[in-house]
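Quick one:
INPUT:
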């Protein structure tokens, strides 16, 4: 058994811990197999070996006292269960049932404590590598960042949050995200980790996001990954983050991404515009319109990746019910229409983008009703001005009118 107190072989330590966690998980599922398999069970052997060596391994870390106690209890229960083997009668049967149930419960507690042990080792390892600049092993660092993202995405855990806060991990991630001298992929991985921590506990981390430089750095990076993270943060923090984006003058940069040569960045910029439209207050919407957003959306809708959903019966026409077959109910027709729309939007991400933006404003959280009505009229005026023909204008106007009031 390797000594987890050693800091020389952290990857090896984590492998041992994961194996022990899996062993405790298996023991929960199968606490009382037949006698031969039980005695030779790899799960039992691994955990009892850890119990045997607990004086030298676990005693060095005060955080592991609970694990040491659980392992001692497990050994007692296993001894009791093995002694009852071969004995018949109701008392022996009941003793085996009680011992089996207790072994399962103790194994669950052991798994919990080992996971906490893994969390401490992993975050300690990650923070150590984050402080080592220039980074010696970027692949290993990205692997650890991905593991952090996966771990916090499993749901809230109070002990894990304490470990993250004590390690000052968020500040480390933010400093690297904002450091242009670090590689792009390291900065992007840090950005995804920050977004994952926001989802893990918004109440704790929202202040650091709003008051720190992370948002500006995401926009300045101008990559598809950074804008994807920005969209995620807008969905998490909502109007307060859009207010921050607007007050920091980032909206013109975001609008400019709609003209990028990078298609993925253009598509994600469109997603970001829609998120801002849904959560943005009056000032943010005015800033987007002032930057010529509607003209850019008309041009995107006119492109090969654009198109009009109105041609598919999206906005109040009867086209969606044609050729659907006899006997299909309203729900079935609507479901088929939505499936066609989704497939069309996958290959034409800018289809009906003017109306989609107008809908976001109409159903969104950031505007008052009178502001929504005023912006709707302004969108119609700007769309007509940007169109190259009466037919194009008629299509877009119809989509905006139908789409905003379905």
């Amino acid at each position: 058994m390797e000594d987890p107190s050693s800091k020389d072989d952290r990857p090896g330590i984590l492998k041992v811990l994961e194996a022990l966690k899996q062993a405790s998980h298996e023991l929960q599922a199968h606490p009382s197999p037949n006698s031969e398999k039980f005695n030779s069970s790899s799960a039992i052997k691994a955990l009892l070996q850890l119990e045997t060596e607990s004086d030298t391994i676990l005693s060095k870390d005060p955080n592991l006292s609970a694990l040491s106690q659980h392992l001692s209890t497990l050994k007692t229960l296993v001894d009791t269960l093995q002694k009852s083997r071969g004995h018949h009668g109701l008392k022996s049967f009941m003793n085996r049932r009680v011992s089996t149930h207790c072994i399962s419960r103790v194994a669950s507690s052991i798994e919990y404590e080992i996971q906490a042990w893994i969390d401490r080792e992993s975050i300690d390892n990650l923070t150590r590598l984050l402080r080592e600049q220039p980074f010696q092993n970027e692949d290993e660092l990205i692997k650890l960042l991905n593991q952090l993202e996966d771990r916090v995405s499993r749901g809230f855990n109070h002990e894990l949050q304490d470990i993250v806060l004590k390690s000052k991990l968020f500040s480390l991630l933010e400093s690297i995200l904002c450091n242009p001298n670090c590689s792009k992929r390291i900065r992007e991985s840090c950005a995804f980790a920050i977004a994952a921590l926001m989802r893990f506990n918004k109440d704790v981390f929202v202040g650091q996001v709003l008051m720190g430089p992370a948002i500006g750095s995401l926009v300045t990076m101008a990559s598809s990954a950074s804008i994807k993270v920005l969209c995620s943060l807008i969905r998490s923090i909502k109007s307060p983050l859009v207010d921050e984006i607007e007050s920091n003058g980032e909206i013109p940069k975001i609008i400019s991404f709609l003209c990028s040569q990078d298609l993925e960045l253009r598509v994600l910029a469109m997603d970001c515009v829609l998120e801002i439209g849904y959560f943005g207050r009056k000032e943010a919407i005015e800033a987007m319109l002032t930057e010529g957003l509607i003209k850019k959306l008309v041009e995107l809708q006119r492109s090969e990746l654009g198109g009009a959903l109105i041609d598919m019966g999206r906005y109040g026409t009867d086209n969606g019910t044609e050729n659907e077959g006899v006997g299909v109910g309203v729900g079935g027709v609507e479901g088929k229409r939505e499936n066609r729309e989704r497939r069309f939007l996958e290959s034409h991400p800018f289809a009906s983008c003017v109306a989609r933006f107008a809908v976001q404003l109409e159903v969104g959280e950031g505007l008052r009703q009178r502001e929504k009505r005023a912006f709707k009229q302004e969108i119609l005026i700007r769309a007509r001005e940007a169109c190259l023909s009466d037919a194009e204008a008629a299509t877009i106007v119809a989509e905006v009118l139908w789409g905003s009031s379905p």
